[in-house]
Every structure is written in C-alpha cells, then in structure tokens.
C-alpha cells in the first residue's frame, strides 16, 4: 500500500473506531472487528500520530520520507484497476452525464440542425442560381470625406443611429455650425 493510501486507511480506521466507541456497549464487537481487520491492537491505534505513521511507512517501503517522485513501477496493477471504470460503471456515468446535460444537448442539436438546414438552403439556392450573398454595409469612406463639421455630424447621425437622427432638429444643428 502506498504512503498516502496507508495514511487514508489509518484516518478512516480511527474515524470508524471513534464513532464505534461513542456508541453503545454492543459496538465493542465492531471495535474488535476493526482492530483485527487493521491488524493492530487498541492501544497502538490510540497512540497513532500522523507523523509517526509517515515515518513508519517510509521505513517499510525503504525510501526517504521526502521522496516526491514516484515511478509507475511503484503502483500495482490492482491499484490501477481500482481507478478504472468497468463497462457498466462507464455506461452509468455516461447516462448520468447525458441526463444532467440534456437541456444543453437539446439546444445544441437544434442549433446544429438549423445550421445544417441553412447550409442546405444556400446550396440549393446556389444550384438554382437564386443565391444572393449578403451585402456588406456601406462605410463612410464610400460616401466621401466630409467638407465641413456640419456635414460630418449629419453623416455620423445618418450612419450610426437612424432613430436618433429622427429626433434631432436638423435646422437647429445647422444653426449651431453656421458660426
């Protein structure tokens, strides 16, 4: 067992043991079973210190305590298999994921179908000769440069905000720039 998993097992053991001791007297059997499964006595588990556990694990595995590098040969095949999902677990996980993301997947499918339909319509229009590509907007350079500040303002109003140009009193604007 690796150092980290050994510590986790010890922490789990201590947590289960403390839960069992806080219960009723009949839980003594549970404590005895935990002790036999963990292979230790009750006195040894009560005095367990995490730093001591790390040192003991380092001695058992014959490696220095500060060894951060792990090689793949340190990991057993059974431990690796514990991380891999079985086909049934994989299918269950996939079903849960699809159920959880169902609204997004439906929206995505609708958008995808709309995109494909638009593409088919464009292709059909190209074959029939009725396809008209989108026209690009006319830029202010196509109108030519403005000769005065009044003309530039009028061009900007007509180009940027048509609804705004309807609200502007153009005669008052002309009076503003006449001076």
Automatic annotation (TrEMBL):
<feature type="compositionally biased region" description="Basic and acidic residues">
    <location>
        <begin position="56"/>
        <end position="65"/>
    </location>
</feature>
<protein>
    <recommendedName>
        <fullName>Brf1 TBP-binding domain-containing protein</fullName>
    </recommendedName>
</protein>
<dbReference type="InterPro" id="IPR011665">
    <property type="entry name" value="BRF1_TBP-bd_dom"/>
</dbReference>
<feature type="region of interest" description="Disordered">
    <location>
        <begin position="115"/>
        <end position="145"/>
    </location>
</feature>
<dbReference type="Pfam" id="PF07741">
    <property type="entry name" value="BRF1"/>
</dbReference>
<feature type="region of interest" description="Disordered">
    <location>
        <begin position="41"/>
        <end position="80"/>
    </location>
</feature>
<feature type="compositionally biased region" description="Basic and acidic residues">
    <location>
        <begin position="115"/>
        <end position="127"/>
    </location>
</feature>
<feature type="domain" description="Brf1 TBP-binding">
    <location>
        <begin position="73"/>
        <end position="178"/>
    </location>
</feature>
<feature type="compositionally biased region" description="Acidic residues">
    <location>
        <begin position="66"/>
        <end position="80"/>
    </location>
</feature>
